[in-house]
Prior knowledge:
Layout: H1 2-15, H2 18-34, E1 51-53, E2 59-61, H3 62-65, E3 71-75, H4 82-94, H5 96-101, E4 105-110, H6 119-123, E5 128-131, H7 136-141, E6 144-145, H8 160-164, E7 171-172, E8 175-179, E9 185-190, H9 200-210
Parallel strand pairs: 3-4, 4-5
Antiparallel strand pairs: 1-2, 3-8, 6-7, 8-9
Amino acid sequence: MNAQFAALHAQREREWPPEQLQRNIAQRETLVRKYDPARHVRPGDTVAPFELVEPDGTILTRDALLENGPAVLVFFRYSGCPACNLALPYYDRQLWPALKANGVRLVAISPQVPERLDIGKRHDLGFTVASDRDNALGRRLGITFEPEDKPAVKPGDNWIGAATGTGTWELPQPAVLLLDRHANVLFVDVSPDWLQRTEADTILSRLALQSIAA
Length: 214
């Protein structure tokens, strides 16, 4: 997957205006520099009950998600994010088949309001996509952020808060959590640089090490 992100960045180097490219790079570098793993959930923690909302309005609770076994949570930014449109189809091809065969749920989570969360339908994803309204779960897990250089916006502007429907700049950093059936965190990987994300092989290796699908 990260090879695809490298190709995306190379394309931007060719096509984007220099100031736009440098602003994007600077934002990601700032997030990497400020990243502190002590601020977010860690292996051994237990995730308290939560609710997510699927695009059709179905409520997905923590206990329903884990009712029949463990689950992998993949946090992404929003449906229009170019990197997310590479990452989720990649997980659908390279991760989801193995998880499904082992009885492990996979849910991709964004703060985008359910009615705008169309990335699953667009790519015909086989796993669940759900909304974390107002970043409630992401904030509790300690994985959300807001950019330092927030430009002024006006009603009708095309900005992050309008895209997500939250009306704020807050987004989750791309992250992967592996939960056992008791909601204990067995693995967590947070990517402060949104053009670097957890490879499927890494997740599957952690799954094998924990033997949680048995």
